Amino acid sequence: MFFTASLSLIALAALWISRDYAAWIAFGTGGTPANWSGYLKITKFRLLRIWAGDDLRDPSMLSSQGPSYLGDLPKRNDRPRIMSRTLPQRQYPEPLDQTTTDYLHSLPKKYATGNLYLDKSITEGRTTDALYVKPEYHIGHKDSTLGDEIAHVHPAENSLHVWLTEADAKKVVSAGWGERFPLASLKMVDVGWTFVYAPRSMEEALVIEEIIKAGIGHLAGK
């Protein structure tokens, strides 16, 4: 009986893993290789996050000291549902009109002038465009994973990642516009790398534009 029960548990676990892997591949894996090796890597991070047990929406983990390029933010009235995987960090898609979608996705290109430029995102496995600062003009924190990347928009559900100062990251999390990056909580990426929720209106997209501008200030001093 014990042997039969063990086989049943193994079969159920294998089925769950197979379905979870297929869902991960189907939605998009971000910068992680889309294979079993990549899946095992993000599963390891998933387990580490469970062990850490900290709340990515808790702003108390961030300091308000240091430079800030972001003014006071209006309170966002609620937060979206977040997908359970550690990587890629994503929310469940929410409806957004085409005009606002187009405007949101145009923002990296809009600011890609002078000391800033547009290229494929290194943190997303070159699957979407990102805004960068030219290396010789990079004045903010240094991070080997993030390089000179300032911000990118996720095509599947319109959320973003933006590299902010720690003080500005705290403002974003405190006001309900985003949350901390899972690997930042594990001290594997700079704490300013922030997940910003997708807008639900043009008004919210304009707030997100201010957050991107704060990211530009952090890395390029503009």
Automatic annotation (TrEMBL):
Q: Which residues form the Luciferase domain?
A: 147-214
Keywords per UniProt? Signal
A Pfam entry, by short name: Luciferase
Specify whether Signal is a keyword of the entry. Answer: yes
Residues of the signal sequence?
Answer: 1-22
Q: What is this protein called?
A: Luciferase domain-containing protein
Organism the protein comes from: Peltaster fructicola
